[in-house]
């Protein structure tokens, strides 16, 4: 029976030191870390490694549940996977320990709140973008494709979509979309 820690921050400029120290202080034998968004499991190699590695009787420790997942669906799927394998989940900053009924209940409540917080943040962001657009401040991101160059390569040099895409380093679908407009 071993105790493993998982630390995650969303961006490369954030620091993992506080999480690492808390997990080691909580008795983790090994701590896996990554700097990647928690909104999905895609690209979270260290988490996948831990989930594949842990065995019955082990414990997975995080500082807070939002370090593990940002949606209730994802959090539930991870918890279900751990439970099926006989692995306990514990959080150092929250009274979560899936080894007890009360810990399981609290775990589910915190998961709902984490998802709610993510949804609120997304709504506020969309409201801010809409307001900025109304005021003429936000015009979306700058185009990354030179539409005139796509058309020129096609018309003047007779290049096909695949060759244009390769030349400009863009997707073929983008070339088709531009040529169709």
What does this structure look like?
This protein is α/β, with parallel strands linked by helices and 181 residues long. Helices cover 50% and strands 13% of the residues. The longest helix has 34 residues. It is elongated and about 70 Å long.
Termini separation comes to: 62 Å
In quaternary terms, these chains amount to single chain
Look at the helices and sheets and give the structural class: alpha/beta
What's the helical proportion of residues? 40-55%
Strand order, main sheet: write it out. 2-1-3-4-5
Global morphology: elongated
Order of helices and strands: EHEHEHEEHHHH
Alpha carbon gyration radius: 23 Å
Which helices and strands, and how do they pair?
Elements lengths: L2 E7 L7 H9 L4 E6 L9 H9 L5 E4 L9 H13 L3 E4 L4 E2 L3 H34 L12 H9 L5 H8 L3 H9 L1
Parallel strand pairs: 1-2, 1-3, 3-4
Antiparallel strand pairs: 4-5
Helix pairs in contact: 6-7
Summary of the model, kept short:
With 181 residues, this protein is α/β, with parallel strands linked by helices. 50% of the residues lie in helices and 13% in strands.
Please describe the structure with a list of short key phrases separated by commas or semicolons.
five-stranded mixed beta sheet; 181 residues; alpha/beta; 7 helices
